Amino acid sequence: MKRFATWTLALGIVFGLLVGGCATTEPQKEMSAKEMVQDAKKNICEITVSQGREILDQGDHLFIDCREPKEYKMGHVPGAMNIPRGLLEFKIDKKVPNKNENVVIYCKSGGRGCLAACTLCRMGYKNVKNMDGGWMAWEKAGYPIE
Questions:
Q1: Across the strands, what pairs with 104?
Q2: What is the pLDDT of residue 110?
Q3: pLDDT for 16-62, tens place per residue?
Q4: Cα(85)–Cα(58) distance, rounded to whole angstroms?
Q5: Which pTM does this prediction carry?
Q6: Which of 107, 114, 118, 121 is catalytic?
Q7: Residue in 60, 104, 56, 99 with CA at minimum distance from that of residue 83
Q8: Cα dihedral 34, 87, 124, 103 sign
Q9: Domain coordinates of the chain in residue numbers?
């Protein structure tokens, strides 16, 4: 029985590789990372770093840094929570259970943050903003860092 299950799994994997591609029947346009970010920008709210600074000063938003932990440790917006882009979908529900939370998300320069903001919106988060320019623009502006 175990041998049958192993062969069935192996044949399924081989067939999947031969058929190839994503598990969708709808034709999808191939997109580069840049095109994916441009597409996501159509569906999210973006703010400038100066608006991000005003929001930070007001204190009524949660800042999420979606860079990798090493990047976060080298400096981040004061009080920002680190949830790497690659783990966002898996960690956000526990870290931010309130889908009405006011969230500002950012990354290094804006791309990952844009995709992350789009993902959060698709997951039902209502008040998400991406900080355009990300950490680099924040640091360049001379705003406070931790």
A1: 63, 129
A2: 86
A3: 434 444 445 566 789 888 888 887 788 888 999 999 999 999 999 99
A4: 26
A5: 0.78
A6: 107
A7: 104
A8: negative
A9: 30-140
